[in-house]
Design a protein that fits this description.
This protein has 275 residues and is an all-alpha fold. Helix content is 77%, strand content 0%. The chain is built from 13 helices and no strands.
């Protein structure tokens, strides 16, 4: 290895270390400051806590329905992720492996939904939902989140499914398999990394989304995690450790999902990159 290559590898390694530090530092900052009192944070927010305390968590749970918000979020996120991932997989299969007429036209028409600002259709949807007597109901929120994420998932899975050889599908069809059986028995097993990746991205999109949950589920008995965290920033602006405790707990599910599925996520993102 020559000197130029070593310098280049050293520069890349240094940049990657800086990216890693910039990513991990906010989490460490939040975790350490949750252990401080509000006075200790005001004196020096960047120092290590001298006395570790969990009082910020107890204040959070006693004054804010935080655990209920977490539960409400899972009630919406889990079925929305399952349905959005399934229908995205089915749509991508139809657009790539079936002889559908005007398939490309329909695909690009569907993609136009991705470029439409959500706020444009959100208020009319809320008016229609309210007139139907379904305001602050989980079912409309689940369906809307599902519909919003289908175009994005279809876009990602289309390139993933195109990397699957057509000969595999043709062989299954020659054996008498229906299109649905080909989808379930051939496409889903082969495309599992990409499908799981779309599920992970859909989970992150819905978990971190604010406007839809704020408009559709604004009652206390249906409020999701992002509106709760948004209210914390105003209610506890002078008690930052409590705010940090809420932010840290709100990030825990996404962090756990990453640690559990990091390898599958990387495989899914790269599976359609090379044909």
């Amino acid at each position: 290895m020559n000197t130029t290559s070593r310098i280049g590898r050293g520069v890349v390694f240094t940049l990657l270390c800086l990216v890693a530090v910039s990513t991990v530092y906010p989490l460490l900052f939040m975790a350490l400051n949750t252990m401080k009192s509000s006075n200790a944070f005001a004196i020096n927010p960047y120092s290590l806590p001298k006395h570790f305390s969990l009082s910020s968590f107890s204040q959070l749970f006693s004054q804010v329905p935080f655990l209920a918000a977490i539960l409400h979020t899972f009630i919406v996120v889990v079925p929305a992720v399952v349905m959005a991932t399934f229908f995205s997989s089915l749509a991508a299969f139809v657009f790539t492996k079936t002889p559908i007429k005007f398939g490309n036209v329909l695909f690009w028409v569907m993609l136009m939904i991705m470029f439409m600002p959500g706020i444009v259709i959100l208020l009319p949807l809320y008016v229609a939902i309210a007139h139907a007597g379904l305001a602050n109901n989980f079912v409309p929120a689940i369906l809307i989140y599902t519909a919003i994420n289908i175009p994005y998932g279809t876009y990602l899975l289309r390139s993933n499914f195109r990397s699957i050889p057509d000969s595999v599908v043709e062989a299954a069809r020659m054996d008498g398999a229906s299109w649905m059986r080909v989808f379930v028995k051939v496409i889903l097993p082969i495309g599992r990394p990409g499908i799981l990746t779309v599920g992970i991205l859909t989970f992150l999109n819905i978990w971190n989304e604010l406007f839809v949950s704020l408009v559709l589920l604004h009652a206390t008995n249906t409020e999701m995690i992002t509106p709760t965290l948004a209210q914390l920033s105003g209610k506890y602006s002078t008690n930052v450790p409590v705010l940090m405790a809420g932010l840290l707990l709100g990030a825990v599910p996404t962090l756990l999902l990453y640690f559990v599925s990091a390898r599958v996520f990387i495989r899914g993102m790269l599976s359609g990159a090379v044909r």
